[in-house]
Specification:
Two copies of one chain form a homodimer. Chain A has six helices and 13 strands. Chain A is of the alpha+beta class and 287 residues long. Chain A has a domain of 192 residues: Sandwich (Protocatechuate 3,4-Dioxygenase, subunit A). In chain A, strands 3-2-7-8-9 form a five-stranded mixed β-sheet, with no helix packed on it. The termini of chain A are far apart. Chains A and B meet through helix 1, helix 2, helix 3, helix 4 and helix 5 of A and helix 1, helix 2, helix 3, helix 4 and helix 5 of B.
Chain lengths: 287, 287
C-alpha cells in the first residue's frame, strides 16, 4: 500500500498484523495501534511533541536498572498499574484487597525466620508486626511465602541508597508457621516521594503533581492453592491517604499501628524509646 | 481519593492533572491517560501482559544509543511516525511530499561540496545524483542545507557497522548553489530490513511481519523561508514498495534511476562498470 494518509493509515497498519498466528497478540497489538493513533489524532500531535515523547520514553528506559524500574513508576503515576491491578484481582468479599506492586520489589530477597528483626540498621522507630494469614474459610495458611519490603524513616528503600551496595534491609522473604502466623520486627514506615530524579519525576513537576505516597508496608504472599496477593498495609493518619501519587490506597488496607511507651517489647526485649505494634489479619482468596 | 476502582480510576487520574499550568501539556497528558486506559480496558490486559509490556518498553529504551533509536523504530513500525508526518506536513499541491524521518539520521554530518563522492568506500554500484531544489513559484532555493543519508549495497547504514568506528560514509551535509542545484556521487541504495536484533525486531517476528523497506535515499532540506522537508527518494522496481515496514512510500517520491553502461560518468570520470543517474526535482513549500 502506497500513499497512506492520516485517514487510512490505521487500517493499513492493522492489515499488516493479519498474518500474526497468535490471536491474543494480534488482538492486543491491533488495539494498541488503534488507541495510539486515536490519541495522536485527537490531540493533533506535532512533530516536536512526537520527538519529545520519543526522548521521554528513551530517557525512561535508560533510567532502568536491576534496582530501578522507571517504566513501572510511569505506569504507577498514570494510574495504569492500579487499573490493571483492579481489573485482575477482584476477589470474593472477605479476602484482603490487592494494590499496586510498585517499582522496588526485588526477586532476590534475604531470607528471614519468624521473629527476626528485618529492619537491620535502617533508621526508624521500632515496629513489631504480628501477621495472621488465613484462607476465606478461616483456615490458617501454613508455609506461605511472604515477601516484605518498605521505605525507612528517611523515605528511602534500601535499593535507593548506593552506599548500601548489595546490602538489603527493611526487606525480607519469610514463611508462615503451621498456624499461618508470622512475626517480625522492622521500622515504622513513613510517607515518601516517588523518585523524582528521573523523567517521571520531571513529568510530575511539569504537570503540577506532588510525588508523595502515604506510609505503607509492601507484601507479596504466595501459597499453594491460593491467589497470589500483592498488597500494602497503610498507616493512618497520613496526609497523603487521599492523594497517593500512584492511586493505591484502599480503606480496607489501613492497619492499626498502636503506639507503646518505652518498656518491654513484644519480643521480650527492653526498649528505651516508644515503639509500635501492628496486628494484621490477611485473608487469601482461593487460586 | 481512596478505593479507586477500574471504573473510576481514569477520572481520578485526570483530576490529578487539574493543577497543571501548561494547558497544552494538560491536554496531551489527559488524552494519553484516557486512551491508554481505554486500551487496557478493551483488551482486559492481564498482569502478565502488563509486565511483558513493561519489559518490552525497558528493553526498547536500553537498546537506544547515540546512533540507534529503537523507540523511533517502534514508532515507525506501528505507523505512528507516518501518521504524525502526514498530519503535520500537508503541503500545497506541487510541493514535494514528506515521509518518515527514520532512526538513522545523525545531527552531526560530514560536510561535503557539490560534486563530491559522499559514498566513500561504501559497497554498491555508482550513483550520480543531480538534484534541483526550487520553491513553489519555480524560484531556485540557493544555499539550502541538505542532509543525505542512506544504506549501502549490504543494506546497512554506516552507524550499523561497528567496524567503521566514528567514520561516516554514504551520509553528508551539502548546500545548494546559487541556482538551487546540488550534485553528488554515492552508491545505489538497495532494499534492507529494519534492525531486527532488538525488541522491535522481535515484535515483527512474533506478529508475522517482514522487516523490509524498499530502497531509498533520505533527505532533510532546510532553507530560510521554506518549510523543512524530510523525505525519501525511492527506487523502482522494488519488491517492497507496497509493503514498506514503516508505511512511508508515496508514489510521487519514486525517482528515475537510469542505468548506463560502462563508460564516461557524469563527473567526467571513466567507469569500467555500469552506473546509475538520478535527476531529481524537489519543490519546497513556503514556511
Amino acid at each position: 500500500m502506497r500513499n497512506i494518509t492520516a485517514d487510512n493509515i490505521t487500517d493499513a497498519v492493522l492489515a499488516r498484523f493479519a498474518g500474526c498466528d497468535n490471536p491474543r497478540l494480534k488482538e492486543v497489538m491491533g488495539a494498541l495501534v488503534r488507541h495510539t493513533h486515536d490519541f495522536i489524532r485527537e490531540v493533533k500531535l506535532t512533530e516536536a511533541e512526537w520527538l519529545a515523547g520519543i526522548q521521554f520514553l528513551t530517557q525512561t528506559g535508560l533510567k532502568c536498572t536491576g534496582q530501578r524500574q522507571e517504566f513501572i513508576l510511569l505506569s504507577d503515576t498514570l494510574g495504569v498499574s492500579m487499573l490493571v491491578t483492579a481489573m485482575n484481582n477482584q476477589y470474593p468479599a472477605g479476602a484482603t484487597e490487592a494494590t499496586v506492586f510498585g517499582p522496588f520489589h526485588t526477586e532476590v530477597m534475604p531470607l528471614a525466620e519468624s521473629g527476626a528483626d528485618i529492619g537491620g540498621d535502617a533508621p526508624g522507630e521500632p515496629l513489631f508486626v504480628n501477621a495472621q494469614i488465613n484462607g476465606l474459610g478461616g483456615e490458617p495458611v501454613a508455609n506461605a511465602e511472604v515477601d516484605i519490603w518498605q521505605a525507612d524513616d528517611d523515605g528511602l528503600y534500601d535499593v535507593q541508597r548506593p552506599e548500601l551496595g548489595d546490602t538489603r534491609r527493611a526487606r525480607a522473604r519469610m514463611h508462615t508457621d503451621a498456624q499461618g502466623n508470622l512475626k517480625f520486627r522492622t521500622v515504622v514506615p513513613t510517607p515518601y516521594p516517588v523518585p523524582t530524579d528521573g523523567p517521571v519525576g520531571a513529568m510530575l513537576v511539569a504537570t503540577g503533581r506532588h510525588p508523595w505516597r502515604p506510609a505503607h508496608l509492601h507484601f507479596r504472599i504466595r501459597a499453594q492453592g491460593y491467589s497470589t496477593l500483592i498488597t500494602h498495609i497503610f498507616r493512618a493518619p497520613d496526609p497523603y491517604l487521599d492523594s497517593d501519587a500512584v492511586f493505591g490506597v484502599r480503606s480496607s488496607l489501613i492497619g492499626e499501628f498502636v503506639e507503646h511507651p518505652a518498656g518491654t517489647a513484644p519480643d521480650g526485649s527492653r526498649l528505651e524509646r516508644r515503639h509500635f505494634t501492628l496486628d494484621q489479619q490477611v485473608v487469601l482468596a482461593p487460586a
